[in-house]
Design brief:
It contains 8 helices and 17 strands. By secondary structure, it is an alpha+beta fold. The protein is globular. The two termini are about 30 Å apart.
């Protein structure tokens, strides 16, 4: 019989301000150790080069992290013009250098031209899999493999600044968008090449709650007494499980149906709630509004899609 993973069974969300030069998984594991949490996951990785919004889900909140991956995101990106790299960011090797002969009118036109639905081929240095291995595995060996382009949507691009060979933009985009690839494509459009020199994620649709830094968490962790199972200084920072899916509408069901719902059965919504047949909804219990999970409408009932364990019925 396998050994059970040690740690506390806590549930909730921390919105981390991920620091520079740290992988998303390394950041997750560090925070998980602070909380002594048994189970944790993140909702969409940021490259080591990137900083900013990284929601970390613990316990029952990990059941919702998949749905958070579907959300739109906003980034502030600085592009180094005139230099193209193997990874389309500052960590790659320089493959091409060209003079920057660019005016603001051309930049403004690119801002217009790159907005909207489009096909994007992922970088060879992405984590997408090919025959069971991530693309970067092949890239590091100098092997080029076929990459399937994907449909993405750039919702908006705002010019923050343009001076010399530095261009800063604010980009709001759909899931699956590679900002590195966008900047590389824009560099080709400009005729001078470009790569990402700085990247910060500032917003994820549906994520609600203040960001905390690793330094703040470390300071709180120092106030805890693990020997006495005292983690109050950290646990007060935990946000509700659905803090990563606030964009989803919610439905309140009768308290008498709560146990049936979490057991996989349909539930009756409270009167006066409009039906949203195509939407996944957050399902709460009447009275205390405990989050029971996610569901969807079927005729006049709410069917369970993903249920959470609840402390009391």
């Amino acid at each position: 019989m396998g050994r059970r993973k040690s740690g506390r069974d806590i549930s909730g969300v921390i919105v981390l301000d991920k620091p520079l030069e740290l992988t998303s998984n390394a950041a997750l594991q560090q925070v998980r150790r602070f909380f002594n949490a048994r189970k944790g996951g993140h909702t969409g990785a940021l490259d080591p080069l990137a900083t900013g919004v990284l929601p970390l889900c613990f316990g029952e909140a990990t059941k919702l992290s998949h749905f958070a991956l579907e959300a739109d995101k906003t980034y502030e990106v600085t592009a180094q013009l005139g230099v193209r790299t193997t990874t389309s960011d500052a960590e790659g090797e320089v493959v091409e250098q060209r003079p920057v002969e660019l005016d603001e009118a051309t930049v403004q036109q690119a801002v217009i031209d790159f907005v909207g639905p489009q096909q994007q081929s992922p970088s060879m240095f992405s984590a997408l899999k090919y025959e069971g291995r991530p693309l970067y595995y092949y890239a590091r060996q100098g092997i080029e493999v076929p990459r399937k382009s994907r449909e993405i949507t750039i919702r908006s691009i705002r010019l923050i600044s343009f001076e010399g060979d530095q261009l800063s933009l604010e980009v709001t985009c759909s899931k699956g968008t590679y900002i590195r690839t966008l900047i590389d494509d824009m560099g080709q459009y400009f005729g001078c090449g470009a790569h990402v020199s700085a990247l910060r994620r500032t917003w994820i649709e549906g994520v609600d709650g203040p960001m905390v830094t690793l330094a703040e968490l470390e300071e709180r962790a120092a106030q805890c007494v693990p020997e006495e199972d005292d983690y109050k200084a950290l646990d007060t920072l935990l946000l509700p499980c659905d803090s990563v899916i606030q964009q989803m509408p919610e439905v309140i069901i009768k308290s008498s149906d709560a146990v049936r719902f979490v057991a996989g059965n349909p539930a009756a919504p409270m009167p006066g709630q409009s039906q949203m047949h195509d939407d996944v909804v957050r399902v709460r219990r009447e009275g205390d509004e405990v989050l029971l999970g996610l569901g969807f409408w079927k005729e006049d009932k709410i069917m369970p899609k993903r249920v959470l364990s609840i402390a009391k019925a």
